[in-house]
Structures are given as structure tokens and as C-alpha cells.
Amino acid sequence: MLSTALSVLLYGATVWTDSARIPCQRAEIEKVQERATPVYHTASTDALCVLTRTPLLELITGERQLVFKAKKKLRAEREILRVKQEASLLRK
Q1: What's the number of domains the chain is made of?
Q2: Which pTM does this prediction carry?
């Protein structure tokens, strides 16, 4: 159940990661994470992550956002390189 909840939570994480730093938004995300493991409903979120051996959502989403931005930058650089190569071919 936890892996399903994480998958749902992390869907689109690259978009909402920045807003998750707002305390009220973070609290909502933590509630969902806590509901995914009802056995530990009285434990803190940090303790819950230790008990379930899952990293904090903040770490996972931050990592996904970094990877997304790096891929986006690489795609843009490849596109610039492709355009430059086409331009040089047209000049010949």
C-alpha cells in the first residue's frame, strides 16, 4: 500500500515540489503519507519514514526535480547543437 501511495504522491512531483516547502502544503502531503501506513498512525512523519524504510518525500521530490531540470537542460542543449549543425550544413 505504501508503494502505491508513494507513486500517487510522486506523480507530477516535478511540478509541485516547490510548493511542498510551504508548511500547510507539506502538512497535507505528510497526512497522505501517514494514511498510507495506518499501523503507525500515532508516529511522527520522520519516525514513520524510518520504520517503513522510505526516504522523506522532500528528498525524493527534490531529487526528481533535479533530474527533470537536468534532462530539460540537456534536451535544450541538444536542440541548439542540432540547429547549429543544420545551419552549418546549409552554408556548405
Answers
A1: 1
A2: 0.59
**What's the confidence (pLDDT) of residue 38?**
62
Q: Cβ neighbours of residue 84 under 8 Å, at least 6 residues apart?
A: none
- For residue 24, the surrounding DSSP H or E stretch is helix 23-35
Residue 35: domain span = 2-91
Give alpha helix (H) positions in 36-56: 45-52
pLDDT reported for residue 41:
61
- Report whether 35 contacts 27 (CB < 8 A): no
**Per-residue pLDDT reduced to its tens digit, 14-34:** 777 777 777 777 777 777 766
Q: Tell me which of 25-34, 55-64, 74-83 is least confident.
A: 25-34
Grid coordinates 552554408 are at which residue?
Answer: 91
| Contact of 29 with 9, CB cutoff 8 Å | yes
Angle, helices 45-52 vs 23-35, to 10°: value is 40
